[in-house]
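Saturday, quiet lab. Running sequence design on the structure tokens for the scaffold JK sent over.
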């Protein structure tokens, strides 16, 4: 039996708004070794499966970089492209403000729209999301896991990972095999998912069996970012089946409808298992963020960067990586080095674009060292600040002093 909420969603009109520049930058940072990781086809298919798409809008400065190169792709999928040129010395545009105004205007003028899909990880959209939900609208947020913090995930109706939707994984960013850290992440996520099911059992008012489809939607209401795919299960039924004999007593068939029902053990029979926050942070740093904890290794990379730019000749991320990789500790993978170098670029950081060609991906665009960067200490400061920002996005409740204690 299909859940009522999801049946209604298919009958709804939906609108999709993409902070395209934000998504394109996040895609390049998450998968620097891939060409064009941000694919629109699966995004549109996903939105169409939820309802009739009546609005498609994308926001960016369409005159530069990867956004200019994707114009034809957006035209193909019927997007209205809102041009937002850079309005500050730091290279920021007004996408968040324009998107928020458009969404609120569409909500008022087109009251039949019941589902708003926002493609961005920017926490500036949290007030907008809350306003939409207060009006009885469903709000789905989609973004790349490394750039969307838990605060925005918990405030929406549902969070959809683009890493999952576009069939991307950390291993797709390079040629690394599955590491122990990757396995540790999956194990930590499974423990957290088990705890989510226990939270449902603890708070439910009816102690009887629950339809399998209803259970998934209840879990999403508690944690909008829940997804069995991230845990390595091809279906929700297989995930629940993995908990049989533990939290779940069994999966039975409803005699009246023929659909699966889930029965649960009593709370006092369930062994509590807690996720170790320190372990979660460690695996996040090591695998998801590919943080280099060995200061000597970092120093070597930063020294090579300075040597590389002594001649002041512009170089792309690919060129930098090719020159630096043979000279560093081979415990650092090519994918990790690419992530480090790409993370040092951007507004107020170590590199800046020498000349942006709209038809050239950012990873292949020539860059030069910022004038303010003169020493290894300058690069180290930028690198640590960037890592701490990423950790705070994922663990927003973590104390700043604890983040600095770990990321150093």
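Result came back. Writing it out in full:
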């Amino acid at each position: 039996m299909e859940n009522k909420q999801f049946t209604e969603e298919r009958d709804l009109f939906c609108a999709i708004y993409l902070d395209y520049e934000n998504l394109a930058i996040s895609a390049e940072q998450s998968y620097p070794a891939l060409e064009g990781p941000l694919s629109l086809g699966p995004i549109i298919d996903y939105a169409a499966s939820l309802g009739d798409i009546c609005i498609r809008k994308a926001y960016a400065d369409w005159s530069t970089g990867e956004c200019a190169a994707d114009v034809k792709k957006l035209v193909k999928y019927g997007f209205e492209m809102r041009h937002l040129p850079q309005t500050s010395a730091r290279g920021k545009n007004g996408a968040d403000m324009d998107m928020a105004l458009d969404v609120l205007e569409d909500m008022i003028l087109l009251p039949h729209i019941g589902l708003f899909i926002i493609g961005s990880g920017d926490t500036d959209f949290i007030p907008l999301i809350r306003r939409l939900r207060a009006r009885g609208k469903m709000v789905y947020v989609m973004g790349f896991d490394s750039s969307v913090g838990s605060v925005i995930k918990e405030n929406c109706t549902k969070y959809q990972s683009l890493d999952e939707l576009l069939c991307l994984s950390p291993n797709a960013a390079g040629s690394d095999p599955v590491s122990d850290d990757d396995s540790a992440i999956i194990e930590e996520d499974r423990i957290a998912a088990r705890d989510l099911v226990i939270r449902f059992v603890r708070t439910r008012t009816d102690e009887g069996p629950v339809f399998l489809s209803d259970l998934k939607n209840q879990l999403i209401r508690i944690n909008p970012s829940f997804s069995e795919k991230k845990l390595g299960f091809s279906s929700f039924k297989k995930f629940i089946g993995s908990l049989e004999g533990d939290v779940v007593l069994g999966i039975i068939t409803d005699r009246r409808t023929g659909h699966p029902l889930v029965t649960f053990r009593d709370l006092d029979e369930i062994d509590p298992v807690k996720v170790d926050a320190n372990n979660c942070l460690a695996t996040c740093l090591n695998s998801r963020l590919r943080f280099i904890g060995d200061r000597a290794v970092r120093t070597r990379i930063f020294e090579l960067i300075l040597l590389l730019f002594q001649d002041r000749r512009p170089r792309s991320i690919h060129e930098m990586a090719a020159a630096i990789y043979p000279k560093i500790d081979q415990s650092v993978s090519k994918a990790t080095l690419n992530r480090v170098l790409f993370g040092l670029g951007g507004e107020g950081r170590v590199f800046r674009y020498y000349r942006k060609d709209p038809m050239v991906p950012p990873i292949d665009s020539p860059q030069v060292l910022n004038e303010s960067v003169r020493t290894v200490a300058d690069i180290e400061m930028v690198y640590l600040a960037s890592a701490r920002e990423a950790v705070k996005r994922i663990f927003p409740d973590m104390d700043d002093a604890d983040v600095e204690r770990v990321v150093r």
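Notes for JK: The radius of gyration is 23 Å. DSSP finds 18 helices and eleven strands in the chain. Ask whether to fix the surface positions before the next round.
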